[in-house]
Amino acid sequence: ETGVTQSPTHLIKTRGQQVTLRCSSQSGHNTVSWYQQALGQGPQFIFQYYREEENGRGNFPPRFSGLQFPNYSSELNVNALELDDSALYLCASSLGPGQYYGYTFGSGTRLTVV
Amino acid sequence: DQQVKQNSPSLSVQEGRISILNCDYTNSMFDYFLWYKKYPAEGPTFLISISSIKDKNEDGRFTVFLNKSAKHLSLHIVPSQPGDSAVYFCAASASTGGSQGNLIFGKGTKLSVKP
């Protein structure tokens, strides 16, 4: 049973650029949630995808968008990058929405915006 | 405005003793609480949870206590082991009135267990 894989592990982008982060969910999981963890903070909910549809969204602007594919993998896209977008981005997959105890987190993508 | 607060950024405990990690929340709609453990360069892993209909849940060395009137929960680790050294996050959710999958996390407490 494979876990959650995120790519890339690290990247550096310039302010104003766009970035795409990828997440492969654990086998059998149909729900993916994305979180942003700024330095010294806890993870903050961005949005969740369930069966290829957005199933909930946190307090993030529309320049944060996502996709989920038929194989349940997911992408997080961020447009017009700002310095404050520098953070660890975590993806978590689960058997369904609300299955918090069954969340499997990836190791994250460390994004640095300069 | 932080809805989940972990007021101790760090905690140091001797091996074999009890570790007590605390968490306070402000939103009375929260009805499910979880603790996650995070090692460096890894994602958080689920540790233990508790529903608001209970006041205690045990799993081996880990026990979570919930005091709804005080809006406070705590994680007890007995006995503490060096491998428990990690950052512990408290998280909460509401089954109504919020979006699905929306776990609210605290800032974490870094636990160091010294041999």
Separation of the first and last Cα atoms of chain A: 37 Å
Categorize the overall geometry of chain A.
globular
Largest β-sheet summary of chain A: 7 strands, mixed
SS summary, helix count of chain B: 0
What spatial form of chain B do the alpha-carbon principal axes imply? globular
String of helices and strands of chain B: EEEEEEEEEEE
As a percent range, the share of strand residues of chain A is over 45%
Averaged pLDDT of chain B, please? 94
Q: What profile does the largest beta sheet of chain B have?
A: 6 strands, mixed
Description:
The complex is a heterodimer of chains A (114) and B (115). By secondary structure, chain A is an all-beta fold. Helices cover 0% and strands 50% of the residues of chain A. In chain A, the strands form two sheets. In chain A, strands 2, 4, 5, 6, 9, 10 and 11 form a seven-stranded mixed sheet that branches. The termini of chain B are far apart. At the A-B interface, strand 4, strand 5, strand 6, strand 9 and strand 10 of A face strand 5, strand 9 and strand 10 of B.
List the helices and strands and how they pair.
The complex is a heterodimer of chains A (114) and B (115).
Chain A: E1 5-7, E2 10-13, E3 19-24, E4 31-37, E5 44-50, E6 53-57, E7 64-68, E8 74-78, E9 87-94, E10 104-105, E11 109-113
Parallel strand pairs in A: 2-11
Antiparallel strand pairs in A: 1-3, 3-8, 4-5, 4-9, 5-6, 7-8, 9-10, 9-11
Chain B: E1 4-5, E2 10-14, E3 19-25, E4 32-38, E5 45-51, E6 56-59, E7 62-67, E8 72-77, E9 86-93, E10 104-105, E11 109-114
Parallel strand pairs in B: 2-11
Antiparallel strand pairs in B: 1-3, 3-8, 4-5, 4-9, 6-7, 7-8, 9-10, 9-11
